[in-house]
Each structure stands twice: as C-alpha cells, then as structure tokens.
Amino acid sequence: MDWQSLFGLSLQQMIGPTAVIYCLAAIGLNVHFGYTGLLNFGQAGFMAVAAYTMTSFVTTWGLSLWLGLVVGLGVSVVLALLLGVPTLRLRADYLAIVTIAAAEIIRQTVGSASLVDYFGGQDGLTDFIADFRNLNPFSGEYGIPGLVEWRAYDWFVMVVGWIVVALSCLVVWALMRSPWGRVLKSIREDEDAVRSLGKNVYAYKMQSLVIGGLFGALAGFFTAFRSAAVGPSFFATDITFFAYTVLLIGGAARVFGPVVGSMILWFLLTFLGEFFAQATSGANPLIPTAIMTSNQASLMRFVFLGLGLMLLMIYRPQGIFGDRKELALDAR
Amino acid sequence: MPAHHRTTAALVVLMVAAIAAVGPFVAAEAATMSAPGETAKCSFPKASDDDTISILGRICDRRDTPQTPVEGVTITVEDSEGNPVGEATTTADGTFDIPLPGTAVENLGKKYVVILDEDSLPEGAALADPGSVERDIQINLDNDFTVTFPVGELAGSSTGKLTQGLQLLVGGIVFSVLLAMAALGLSMIFGTTGLTNFAHGELITFGAFVVYFVDQIPGAFRVFGVEITVISALVVAFVVSGVFGWVNDAALWRPLRRRGTGVIAMMIVSIGLSIFLRSIYQFVGGASSRNYSQYSAVQPYEFGPLLVTPKEITVTVIGMAVLVAVSLLIQYTRLGKATRAVADNPALASSTGINVERVINVVWIGGAALAGLAGGLLGVTQGFNYQLGLKILLLVFAAVVLGGLGTIWGAIVGAFVIGIFVEVSTLFIPAELKYVGALIVLIIVLLIRPQGLLGRAQRVG
Questions:
Q1: B418, B428, B435, B443: best mutation site toward chain A, by most A Cβ within 10 Å?
Q2: Which of chain B's residues have a Cβ under 8 Å away from the Cβ of A113?
Q3: Greater pLDDT, B14 or A303
Q4: Which CATH number fits domain B164-448: 3.10.100, 1.10.3470, 1.10.150, 1.20.900?
C-alpha cells in the first residue's frame, strides 16, 4: 500500500476543482433545502442549462464566453420560475418529483441526436475555453512537491473557484442574517405561521428557488471550466444526490456546511477509491481477485457513499456543524 | 423402447426441417420464374437447424396489403469491433440470410450489429421506425437469429400513420402493464407509509437479476414439452422480491417509523439506499446489458398489418393476469379493504381496529413482489443491466403522480396513460425523446390538476 500517493491523491481531490463544483452546487441546495425547506432534486438541471448556454454561445454561435455566462445565469433564473410556478404551492414531495423530472428532461434534450448541431449530442461541446484559459496567470506546477501537485490550469480553476465559493458564502451569510433570511427560515419551520403574519410565502419561496438556482448555475460554469468540455453525462441525476450528501455532511443551514462537506466527501471518496484500487491491483493483491476485481473495486466508494448517506440521515441529520433543533425535517 | 421412439421423432423433425429449409427457396424460385409480374408473398425465412448461426430476416413493405417483399436491399453484419463479417442482398421474397463465420458454439455470447443500407431502399420507401437502420444483437442461443426491418412510409407522409400508430399502441400497452405493476407498488407504499421511495427502481432491478440467476441454473424446465424456464424464473423472482421487500421494511423502514423519522428524511435515506443497492448490483452483475435464455429471438406473429412477438404476448398476459388478480384482492378481500383504509387515513384506520403495521407489512411484500415481477418482465422485453430500475423510475413516478399520489386505482390509470403516451408519441417526436414527452406531460398535469386524475380535490399544499 502506497500511503503517500493515497493521501496525496486524496488531498488533491479534497481541494481540487471537483470539490469546488460540488461545494457551489451544495451552497445552492443549502439556500433551497437548508434555509427554506424546499426539496430541489434537480440541481443538476440548473447546472446543465447554465453550462450548456455558456458553451453553446461560443461553440455553436461563435459569441463571447462572457456574454454566454451572463445569459446562462439568466436562463437558470427562467428555469427556477418555470419549476416554481406549478409546484411551490404544493407539498414538498411534488417539487422533488418535478425538479428531478425537469433535470432529466434537460439532460436528455441536450444529449439528443436531433439537436446535435446545437448541443453536440452525446459527445457534448468542446472548444469554448480559450477566453477563460487566456486569463490564466499561472504556469508550472503548484503544491507540495512529492505529495500533491496541480497543473497550472487546474490551479487557476481552483483559485478562481475558491474565491467564488468565498464570495458565495459571504452572500449567503449576509442574506440569511437579514430580515429576508429570517423569513425564509421561518417558512421552513412553519409556513402557515408566516402566512398568518401577512407574508407572501409563495414569493419568498420563489426568490429562494431563484437564488439557489444561481449558485447551481455557478457550479455548472465550473464544471465546464474544469473539463474544458460539457456533455450530458456530466449532469446525471446522481450529481444532485452527491451534492445533497455534501450538504448533509457539513450540516444544512450552516454557511460553511457545504465547504466542509465538499472537502470531506471528496477526500473520503478519493481515499476509498484509491485504497480499493491499490488493494486489488498488482500480482498479489491485498484483496484476492475472487472477492473483488479491480473493476469492482472502483464501485466500492459508491457503496460506501450510499451507505454513508443513509446512516448520516438516520443518526446525524444535522451533519457536523448543524443544529438538530434548527433542522426539524418534516413534509409540508 | 423410448430410445427408439426418440430416434424416429428426431428423424421426422430433421426431415421437416430439411423441407422447411429448402421450401422457401424453391417457392421463391418458382415465383420469380413463372410469374415475374406478380408479387411474391412476404413470408418469414425459415430457421435452419445446423451447427452454424445465420442472421436471417426479411424486408417487407407494410404500406401494401398484403405486404410485399422489397428486393435488392443491402444488409451488412459487423462484429462488435466494427469489422464487416457478412453481407447480403434481399432476394425476390424480401429475405436475406447471412451466415456468421465460425461454429454456433464459438458465436455464443458474441455481439453483432446488423446494418441496413438505406440508400439501397427503393425510392419513396423508408423504415417504419427511422433510426433503426442498425440493430445490436447478441447471440444467446445456438439457433439462427431473425431480424426484421419493417418498411413503411417515408417520414412525414400521412398515410400509414394509422398502422404505425396501432403498432406503437401495441408496444405501449405492453409497456403500460409493466409500468402499472411497478407504479402500484410505489403508490401503495406511499399511501400507507408516506414514503416517496427513490429506491423503488432498485426493487425493479432486483427482480430482473433474480430471473437472470434462476435462468442461469443449468438445464431447462419443461412442462408437456413446453420450455418454461423463464416463466418459472419469473415466479421465483416474484416470491424472492416479496421477501426482499419484507427485509427492506423490517430492517430499515419499520425502525425508522418507530423513531418518528420525518418523511423528507426518509426520502433522503431512500436515495442513499438507491445508490447503495445500484452499486451492489453493478458490483455483482457488471455494467453490460444481459438477456435471458428464452424469448430473445424475434419471430413475430402477424395480425393484419400488426406484428406482435411471442414475448410481448407472454409478458402482457402474465402482467394483465397479475394486475387483475391484485385489483380483485384489493377490492374485495378484508385485507385489501384494510389497505385502502390505511392509504386513505392511517390514524382513522388505526382507531377502527385495523392493525396498521400488519397492513404496511403486507403492502411492502406485495409492492416489492410486483416491482420485482415488473423488472423480470422488462428484462424479458428489452434486456436489463444494473440501471434498469433507475431508467424507468421517473416514468413510474410520473404514472403515480398523474393518477394521484397514494390512490391505488390512480396508479394503474396513470401507468396506462404514461405507457401508451411514451410509445405513441414517437409518431411525432424522435424516439430518443419519448421519455421527455412523458415527463413534460407530468409537469403540465401538475399545473392543471395537482391532485392527479383520480385524486380527490383536496389541499395538497
């Protein structure tokens, strides 16, 4: 067992570009679920519309990346309004089913062969990254030599990404300590009580859905920046569920919950993945091939992820930092 | 002596097979030779029983009644690496026969792609199902493999749409029956426990896997000479899935209910369970798609212009029988009435002396058994892999919400609406987007009638 590479790789993923993406997606879900109690299961849909809008602006229509980015934010606002209108007056599980359905509609539509000229079908879109890459002031390698290193471009995405995460946390913190944020929290606790105080619950929920969706859009942009490509498989339903896991590890309704959660999840996922990969590779593997092949080893981390999500929700729904009293989950 | 009889029987079979194998060629020859102006009858090629495998098929123009064969269409077969292994042009009776290299045993389990050259079709004709110029096939049996490419209208013309629509309706009904079984389980579990079970798809996949493992047991079950290996595997899957449902409830959901866990928390637990089980399935079964030993060869019956495969008939008959039986149980038995009462109002049902926990127990067993059977039958119709349940889970949700969450009849009605819509909508939209259409319908229905088709108009918000 090569412990050094095991920890090195885990550290690399812990603060790498992927952790940034899940952190931003989970910040959005924190606004939806943690603060307002809205069960958005379609965060991958917000990521997809934003990322596809930005990239198709460059690749398909030859326009500016930055214009695409702004329009992408706008499109995710429109998506939030479209999803909110039919469901925000209904019980929580209706929003869950509609958002998960909408995310799948978006994914299958952009991946369809009939729209291949616009969105690249199953292969997705590439060749849009130049404007972003040209901003990269870094060159060479960064990190701790011998333990963990990042290529200059990944380092650039990480630096920009964690700055955006910091600003997002600041925004969420400021919003949630404002009177507006307190209304959101009270909607989560008791919607009828808020309504009886004369607040327009529907409007507040809609605003929350829009703002959380915007963070989802940021996660979508960074998905495109990280891979220099987008494709339908980048926005599968499981992405949303992983983001929920991130949120629940750190603790819902806490500003830094998603940040800590994302780091922990990606450290553990990489650690487990690499551990089982090493344990099943080589001539005389630690785990005999009869029990587990190296193909099967790559699945073990998802077995643990599923199990972890269940146990977390059952035994510690408030995560690491959360307050159990603040998160009395119940359907409304 | 039985052995003697068997030899005689084998000889007779051989003779029949030989005549059958030669027959079409003679007939086709005769048709072209004697009456070149007349159209030959469009018949299926006969499978031969030698130790090589051939890809057989026919190309018929379904615009004509009776259907006419299409001559001179080029068909190629490629192996899984994309290397061509055989080519043929359809004869006057519309059939083609491409022998695969190697013996039957060598070809078992291999995958091939059958490709139709669209340019070689006569003018004005196109495939009835555009986009199906390529067929992926896997050789599972040491018999010849039959492929059909129905030729219909060029896309966009209106005549022939009715026939196409009817054909799609048949497919839609087959799919609806399976969807209804899965939806019934989900809806009953939701109705009695309030749990929106995102792991329901994994109950469906579970059934498909059980059928596969029973099917893999060497030997074949026969009753009066009819092979019923897969059908008996389906019965096993039904029972084992029921047990699996009971284990789900007893090990996880009942303790959570006792703790007073909220329904949203349980929903997220079910997502964790879904990821967990799906990874286990992939661990055990790998990522590749699998088929069962029976029903993979397609030799459809013809009812007028419609083609119905034996497996579609088998699946629909089994599914319908189970659905009717379950409906009667729910409607007329004491336990069924108790189930409906609990679904309607658990607290009230409990206060009238109904043992709610016992009803929930039965619902979990029954719901999981239905889901498992649906999975097994889906495996029969389209093959399966570890994602089988995940792929149709949203359609099951759509059916349940459309009919009215928690209403038992609503789930069946919703499943038929969604199932038929999914298939028939491919008349107007590309087949790859057929699930998208159904999900959009779901959202529109929620906008207009949030309680669903059969739900009571009560406040759900």
A1: B443
A2: 131, 430, 432
A3: A303
A4: 1.10.3470
